[in-house]
Amino acid sequence: MKGTGELVLYLDFDGVLHHENVLWHPRIGAYLSAPDGYVLFQHAELLEQILAPYPAVQIVLSTSWVRRYGCTKAAKNLRPALRSRVIGATFHSKMNEDEFAAAPRGMQVWSDVLRRKPKDWLALDDDWLHWPKWCLDKYVRTHEHAGLSDPAVEREFREKLQEMCKQRLSKAKNEY
């Protein structure tokens, strides 16, 4: 499975890369119902910049967009540098969609961690309800409106990402 033994970022879209209030219409697709100044994927460039020094970090989509559009189409909404990191999603077509949707986001991510077996991982998500306690050190809760651009969120993510990648580098050096 892609990501096994690698560094993985579980990425939600709504409330992370843009305002959380995304709606869907059959003719126009996804759109924001938010005050002026908010646009879809407005913080994608920020995420790209934060991840740039860490090329080994791969992305697994943990967003509900995957259930609506599929992994490939959902990933096409990302900037090319982010899209190239996407290796899969927490949901795939062989799963029971109703059972998956009924599980809290933290359990969806944890189930994927158990299947994928990454070396280490982080999750960016505004959905904070019912995350397993044993996952909270890997979780960065984003602001539902400001997403990743909230200064405290950005700082926490940068710190956790640096720590995850530093540990990976020190383990790699010890293997030589």
CATH topology: Rossmann fold
Based on the coordinates given, report the CATH architecture: 3-Layer(aba) Sandwich
Number of strands: 7
Total helices: the number is 7
Mean pLDDT: 93
Summing up helix and strand content along with how strands pair, one would put the structural category as: alpha/beta
Major sheet size, sense and barrel closure: 5 strands, parallel
- Indicate the percent of residues in helices: 25-40%
Shape: globular
CATH uppermost class: Alpha Beta
Strand order of the largest sheet: 5-4-1-6-7
Rg over CA atoms: 16 Å
Distance separating the two termini: 26 Å
N-to-C order of helices and strands: EEEHEHHHEHHEEH
Give the tally of structural domains: 1
Extract low-pLDDT stretches: none
Beta-strand content? 15-25%
